[in-house]
Amino acid sequence: MSDVAALRRVAVIGVVLAVVVGVTSTLAFLAAFGWDIAAALVGDPAAIIDGGPEAAALLRWGAIGDMFYSYLLLAPLALYLHRLLRPRKPWLADLGTLAGFAYIFVGASGAVILASVGPPLIEAYATAAPADRPAILVSFELLRNVVFFGLWQTLDPLTLGTWVASVGLLLRPERGAVGRFLVVLGGGLFAASGMTMLGIHSLPVIAVGVLLVVLVWAGWGLVDRAARSANAEEA
Fold it and tell me: What would the pLDDT profile of 42-60 be if each residue is shown by its tens digit?
């Protein structure tokens, strides 16, 4: 078996495991925030801080699962794509892979920090005197700002966007639809990071962003198809 084939097999196993772990850990994460998707998206302290030991345990396991399925289990995929695509344009493949591993390790670090610091704060809040609770709440808000807004919603979209867009550019000559989608998705991730920098944290805004990505991708495909048709007629 060649190195590329072996890497492909490991990458597929990693992605399958990521899907399996992702389902269970996402459910645990949502349950920790009372099944409030908007609150879980931004780590809203008000939705979890008074959840007690049960919410603390759910947050711990949800964050640990996130460390694996969102990040570490994607490392073989990054290596496989780099090996597969590097002959086409080495500098772009190297840049994309560097960004991919930055995304993996920055995001995984955020998940570890959340799993290690968040649950003890929730447990302490449950047993603290009323006078001590505001300080614990402030500490959890600081944790949320660092992990959710700093690492996951500012640095992660920049690094993941670079990785995704580079793969899209390298795939586009052979797989136009997939390549175009990845390039547009990368641009959407850059925009998401910019919104976080501007202090915009809204589920409806994210939904609109996803819709725009799909529309831009579809529009680009139509333009490419029209250009190919015109070139064929001229030939």
Answer: 999 999 999 999 999 999 9
Q: Is residue 85's pLDDT more than 70?
A: yes
Measured between its terminal Cα atoms, the distance across the chain in Å is 44
Rg (CA), the chain: 21
Give this prediction's pTM: 0.90
Nearby residues of 209 by Cβ (< 8 Å), 6 or more positions away: 188, 191, 192, 195
Residues 6+ positions from 59 with CB-CB distance below 8 Å: 28, 29, 32, 48, 114, 115, 118, 119, 122
Residue partners of 217: CB distance under 8 A and separation at least 6: 180, 181, 184, 185
- pLDDT score for 213: 78
39 with 47: CB under 8 angstroms?
yes
